[in-house]
Design brief:
It contains 19 helices and no strands. The protein is mainly α.
Length: about 500
């Protein structure tokens, strides 16, 4: 079915009937300016929290692997970051739409802060008793609270950002993610050698606390009510199901989410297997350097999107980038060196901000504000549903099937595949990368051939054209009123002088 009318076309319904068009435009501009200031303050706090949490996640992952943990334990830790949140995501969306999103973000961050406090206790006072099971438990709790925080923050952007600026602002947010990807691995490897795990955990706790204080000091504008949102009110179960039915009725959106699910499964294999592959061939410092080079790709891509915005045809840009990512991953498997992995990782990650910003701009501009909590949780659930599967099976597949098969004397030793990929440590993981890259390319090509996906681009372009036309009309009205005021002013002044003469 057709996508709903964008929010901007309902703004005039909220304006008082006695207000002139110029006054309404000035009020809207002032409100948008205040909302933008709130957004930048909130984003700063969330950035600090994300940065410090990524530092902690990096060093804990290294700790698991260096403490004698297998790839399977490493993959299970990643698995538990996502799965519990997926289980409560539909109901989390209902909470996000029913309550103040600022408060939802605050309590969600507070819950995540409690997990940092637990890890800090074991690290600062009883490091010898810290086990991988403590990290598993904290990952579960953080995942549950993250199911509320992510949709609440994403949905709040539509409250704070004008629709025409969503693409550029999402691009700027990707700049923050790029900084995290670039600096966290490199800084974590340096801090591990200086302040150690204790200093990093303490820094994380301080940054998360500061983020909470920032959320307490700001206020969000009210959510714009829509006809669809009022019709979707009901019981918790009904509202949770409504988010799914909203997407299913729109074939293009559903197909796009399935495409993301396939791509995310390949990403899950990459995220889980790349650290063990690099740590088995290089040192922690070199691993941090390679991760930082790859993260610089996110930073560069984010700067480009923030500077030039997203393309008008968002979906076409997304699918093109997904196919190119598959090609880049395929190019990295022939000869595994830190230099090649760093270069291919840079090329792979430079495309990620465009994909993320384009997808976020598409959803935030099309879905009504009072439905975004439910719709966005279902969206994230479908898109990342394949990530836990990839995280769970990638470790055992590498440990027990692909690595032994491509080891010396293994099943593929002396075969055409073995001659092509090589025999030895890490070649089984490279074989898995090859299969995932081919899968990504195939998925992107199939999505490009599906017409309802391209209809999303047509709807988005129509919305942009309507917004541009509306802005032109408002500017024309303001210009005409200004001309009228200038024409009336001299005549009124002259009339006053004549009255003085007569008197």
């Amino acid at each position: 079915g057709p996508l709903p009318q964008p929010r901007t076309w309902r703004m005039k319904e909220r304006s008082p009937t006695t207000t002139t068009s110029s006054t309404a435009a000035t009020t809207t501009t002032t409100t948008q300016s205040q909302s933008l200031k709130v957004f930048w303050v909130v984003w700063l706090g969330q950035f600090l929290s994300e940065f410090s949490s990524n530092l902690t996640g990096f060093v804990l992952g290294v700790w698991i692997f260096q403490s004698g943990g297998s790839i399977t334990e490493f993959s299970v830790a990643n698995f538990l970051v996502d799965v519990p949140g997926l289980l409560v995501a539909p109901f989390a969306g209902v909470i996000v739409d029913r309550f103040d999103r600022r408060q939802v973000i605050f309590w969600s961050d507070l819950g995540a802060l409690s997990t940092t406090a637990v890890i800090a206790y074991y690290v600062l006072y009883d490091l010898g008793s810290l086990t991988v099971y403590h990290i598993y438990a904290c990952n579960i709790v953080a995942s549950l609270f993250g199911a509320f925080q992510g949709p609440a923050f994403s949905a709040s952007l539509a409250q704070l950002i004008p629709a025409k600026d969503l693409g550029r602002v999402n691009g700027f947010m990707e700049v923050g993610d790029g900084i995290v990807q670039l600096l966290c691995p490199l800084l974590a490897s340096i801090l591990m050698a200086t302040v150690g795990l204790k200093g990093i955990i303490l820094f994380d706790f301080v940054c998360c606390t500061l983020s909470e204080l920032i959320i307490l000091c700001v206020r969000f504008p009210p959510v714009v009510s829509s006809e669809e949102g009022r019709a979707a009110k009901g019981s918790v179960c009904f509202e949770a199901r409504y988010g799914l039915s909203y997407i299913v009725k729109r074939k293009g959106l559903m197909a796009l989410l399935v495409t993301f699910a396939c791509s995310n499964m390949a990403d899950a294999f990459l995220v889980v297997l790349m650290p063990p592959l690099l740590l088995s061939l290089t040192s922690v410092e070199e691993y941090g350097f390679v991760s930082s080079v790859a993260g610089s790709g996110v930073l560069l891509g984010s700067i480009l999107v923030a500077s030039f915005g997203t393309p008008r045809r968002l979906v076409l840009g997304i699918l093109t980038c997904l196919i190119l990512q598959g090609v880049v991953m395929l190019a990295a498997i022939n000869e595994v060196t830190s230099t090649i992995i760093a270069f291919c990782g840079f090329c792979y990650m430079v495309l990620l901000p465009l994909i993320q910003a384009s997808s976020n701009a598409l959803w935030q501009s099309q879905v009504p504000q009072d439905l975004q909590g439910r719709v966005f949780t279902v969206r994230s659930t479908i898109a990342v549903s394949s990530i836990p599967f990839g995280q769970l099976v990638s470790g055992p597949l590498a440990d027990y099937i692909f690595e032994p098969a491509l080891a010396v004397g293994g099943y593929f030793d002396g075969t055409l595949l073995g001659d092509f990929l090589g025999i030895g440590p890490g070649r089984g993981i490279c074989c898995m990368f090859m299969l995932m890259s081919l899968f990504m390319i195939f998925t992107g090509l199939v999505a490009c051939s599906y017409p309802p996906i391209h209809a999303l681009d047509d709807d988005y372009i129509a919305m942009l054209d309507a917004l541009a036309k509306e802005e032109e009309e408002e500017e024309e009205v303001q210009a005409n009123e200004e001309v009228d005021r200038e024409e009336k002013s001299p005549s009124q002044s002259l009339q006053g002088k004549k009255k003085v003469k007569v008197t």
